Amino acid sequence: DIVGGKGAALDRLIGSSIPVPTSGVVTTLAYSTFVNAPVLKEVIARIRAGEVVSTDKVDTAFRQVPFADDLREQILATAQRVGGGSPLAVRSSATVEDLAGSSFAGQYRSILEIDPADPDAVLDAVRLVFASLWHPAPCAYRKAFGIDEADVEMAVVMMRMVAAQTAGVVFT
Hints:
It is a single chain. By secondary structure, the protein is of the alpha+beta class. The chain has seven helices and four strands. It has helices at about 5-15, 30-35, 40-50, 55-65, 70-85, 120-130, 135-145, and strands spanning about 25, 90-95, 110-115, 155-160. A four-stranded antiparallel beta sheet has the order 1-4-2-3. The radius of gyration is 16 Å and the shape is globular.
């Protein structure tokens, strides 16, 4: 509930001593605080009422909201620590991601190659990942699978990008 599905999966990997690039999470608690802004409450209420709000309009609303100073500083400090001079992957970690009866693969936003030393880029990436929770495609997907939107929240995983020697995808 605090770090979302992807964040929890990464935690399980780390707990099993599986190597994972340095990571940090902007929690769902930060998300909940952020979306209390009147402009976001209004947009989310419209979406929950059934209105389809375009991706661009959702993103614009989220980009209008500043982070509280303490949250801003925590996000930027985490980005610096995680990045360690390397670019970041800023990825979604929703509370309703990869459930037993559905997979949200590709529904939410991930942003790659973010410079952790660029505060505007880091904060904009976090805002845009937050916003992707309310884009039309994932909203339609949740509706199609009967997933209640009352408690959906988004955490954001910031992960140091590493040069891959090999990569692959496994479907089970």
